[in-house]
Amino acid sequence: MARESFVPRPTSNAEGEPFGSHEEAWFWTVQAHDARAAGARVTAGRGLVTRPCEPIDVLKVVDRLYRQRRLVRDHLMVLVHYGRRFMAPDPSRRLEQRAASLWAEAFSALAPALRTKGIVA
To answer: Please, which residues bridge with residue 19 across strands?
Structure first.
């Protein structure tokens, strides 16, 4: 009979510290997703700051908005591109003006959903 291994999970009564802004939550999600794709083992409750969600929770909100057609593919492309750059598009730069408007549209739909779920304060 194989012996099951037991790995204790950290116990805490705190729900986690919500993000200060929706952009901060998005950048955290993209970084965690890229780290996992590169082979990192992302485990809940092991970071310096305990968060009220997992990266997949934010991605599920984005997916739901996409399926409701409140976000389109252009929104997703801008979110991922600038999320990986860890900066929002600059509306004062001519080449980033369209991306900045798509970024603002995406977060106008995303921010209330993240606030409702308690991910953003």
So the answer is: 120
| Domain extents in the chain | 22-37+54-116
* Percent of the chain residues topping a pLDDT of 70: 83
Q: What is the pTM of this model?
A: 0.81
Residues 29, 34, 58: CA angle, nearest 5 degrees: 20
- Find where tokens 């409750």 sit: 45
Give the DSSP per-residue string, 11-53: P-S---PPBSSHHHHHHHHHHHHHHHHTT----TT-SSS--SS
Contact 28, 55 (CB under 8 A): yes
Decide: 101 and 91 in contact? Cβ < 8 Å.
yes
